[in-house]
Amino acid sequence: MDKDLRNILFSKFETSQLSLRNRIVMNPVPTGFVESGVPKPEIAEFYKRRAKNVGLFIIGAINIEHETATNNENIPNISTSRDIEVWKQVTKAIHQEKSKAIAELWHSGSSRAFSKTDLSLKVSTPSGYIGKKKVGSPLSVEEINLIVQKFAEAARKAQISGFDGVDIHAAHGSLIHDFLTAETNQRTDEFGFKNRTYFAERVIKECRKVVGDNFPIFIRLSNFKSYDPTAKLAKTLEELKQIIIPISNAGVDIFDCSEINYTDSAVTGKSGNLSYWVKKIANKPTITTGGIGSPEILYKDIPTLITEITSQPKMSYLHLQRKKAQIFYSNNLVSDFKEGGFDLLAFGRPLLINENWFDEITEEDWWKKQIQKRQLIYFLFFH
User: Among the residues of the chain, which ranges form H helices?
Assistant: First the structure.
């Protein structure tokens, strides 16, 4: 691992609400330890094994309590007292290793229409369309208000469960993402595209009311949708500002920016990914990601990967690690960090596949040092 990158990753991160021992984040991943939406106790051991090197876990997605919230029976809930007891075990295990845990809360939105799981036919979307294709039914204002309250209830339950904050899922074709994009938000009322951030703002503000000022609220954003990897949140930097500024002002503390590839440009004609430009616009901490540890696992391979994980869940999947542990884009990461392009660096698939992934990276560094020492001794002795 590059020395400068190592120093960045293992440096402390501090805000008034959150203190982390390093800047390493584990992205939300499917663990497989879920049965019909109910998290299993094994999920605590899954995260505990990875906590020795990870400063922050974003755990999810976790369904809010709504009839169309999920798009897969393997996505866990945070609704019942049983759910909360399991999540308490998870957060306790993570805290024992001096790490922190954030609950990622979501409603599936239009992505539910593309689920392969046999769920009910009902799909909740802003306007009942994706472009010209009819998908589900448009939400009434009363239904929207109910969903806002359900996000707030889930945030409070996450706080009770011992989580250190919540991450509001507004990416990948989830419901909040649907409100942010023109193809899925064709409404003409107060929640319409001209006021595209209003729903997100409502969710953030209601969550803040129930969790208080000292409980960090993240929001997860992406350009792409699970059913459209070419989708854009905004075409221009000015349009991106129109999205980020009101969301930031609503009370978001940290922006969690999801990328397919780290080097993807956030807006047309501008270098810099989503986390880079969001940080420049909002002047708040951002999390960056995007194939940094596993570019050989392509976006199109993820459904197959998830199928294997959910059918026979294990603590690690070493047979899926096609290359030795390493971090890609090191030079970009170091220069972007120094330019203030991001604050935290997230890894998903590498840590899902291999609980000891970071150990392998540090071991590689150790062996390199030993080889260098031996080469120096050899040179001094024979020359």
Answer: 3-9, 42-50, 81-96, 141-160, 175-180, 198-211, 237-249, 274-282, 302-311, 330-338, 349-353, 357-382
Q: Are 165 and 216 in contact (CB under 8 A)?
A: yes
Question: Which residues pair with residue 100 across a beta bridge?
Answer: 56
How many domains does the structure of the chain reveal?
A: 1
- Report residue 103: phi and psi, to 5°: -90, 120
Q: Are 25 and 70 in contact (CB under 8 A)?
A: no
pLDDT at 321: 74
Task: Return the CATH number at 50.
Answer: 3.20.20.70
Taking each helix axis from N to C end, the angle separating 141-160 and 198-211, rounded to the nearest 10 degrees, works out to 40
- Determine the pLDDT at residue 328: 85
Helix axes 81-96, 42-50, angle to 10 degrees: 20
Cα-Cα end-to-end distance for the chain: 30
By the 8 A CB rule, do 102 and 20 touch?
A: no
> Is there a contact between 257 and 222 (Cβ–Cβ < 8 Å)?
yes
Distance CA 137, CA 135 (A): 7
Can you give the pTM of this predicted structure?
0.91
Closest CA to 326 of 340, 342, 347: 347
Give the other-Cβ count within 10 Å of 315's Cβ. 14
Its domain, for residue 126, covers 3-382
Which residues have C-beta within 8 Å of that of residue 273, sequence separation ≥ 6?
257, 259, 262, 263, 264, 265, 266, 288, 290, 341
- Residue 17: which residues within 8 A CB-CB, separation 6 or more? 165, 214, 215, 216, 253
- Name the maximum alpha-carbon separation found in the chain: 83
Joined tokens for residue 15:
């805000």
Burial class (CB in 10 A: 0-12, 13-18, 19+), 318: exposed
Nearest to 352 by CA among 104, 22, 26, 73: 26
Q: What is the mean pLDDT of each run of 10 residues along the chain (383 residues)?
A: 89 97 95 89 94 95 94 90 96 97 96 67 88 88 98 98 98 96 96 97 98 98 89 94 98 96 89 95 96 64 71 82 80 94 94 88 57 54 54
The answer to whether the CB of 342 falls within 8 A of the CB of 287 is: yes
